[in-house]
Write a structure and sequence with these properties.
The chain has 158 residues and is of the alpha/beta class. The chain is 30% helix and 25% strand. The protein is built from 5 helices and 7 strands; from the N terminus they run H-E-E-H-E-E-H-E-H-E-H-E. Helix 4 runs parallel beside helix 5. The chain starts with 5 loop residues before the first helix and ends in an 11-residue tail after the last strand.
Amino acid sequence: MARMSWDDYFIDLMETVSKRATCDRGRSGCIVVRDRRIVSTGYVGSPPGLPHCDDVGHLMKEVIDEDGTTRQHCVRTIHAEQNAICQAARYGISLEGTTLYCKMEPCRVCAMLIISSGIKKVVAKRRYHAAQETREMFKIAGVELVVVEDKTEDYTNQ
């Protein structure tokens, strides 16, 4: 039996973390690692004390892209990456120089938080349909982006 790579190991653990997610549109998880040790995790869910999509339904907002494309976006929950960064902040853990593992390339807001928190590498399992700005920001900021599967993640009401 061949030993799995560190990236595969943390992607598998990220998938386990995602099972705690409380929004069925994108049950995503996230793991932040320093020196092959997990320092923080997060999953898609509402802030503590607020209702979850799985319990009360989605809180959908319409988003219109620059090209006129209309999408639906659930705003009840925060993204897995945001939750992992918030957990680190809550417990006083610096993320400077860490690697973040996530289900798909981060959105624009998550990318800004990743850059601002000092994370230096992002390993995403799949592509995200609206990640062009993320890729550009990471390139400018010097954040390495690795996408394991060259496939775009699909989810409901994308």
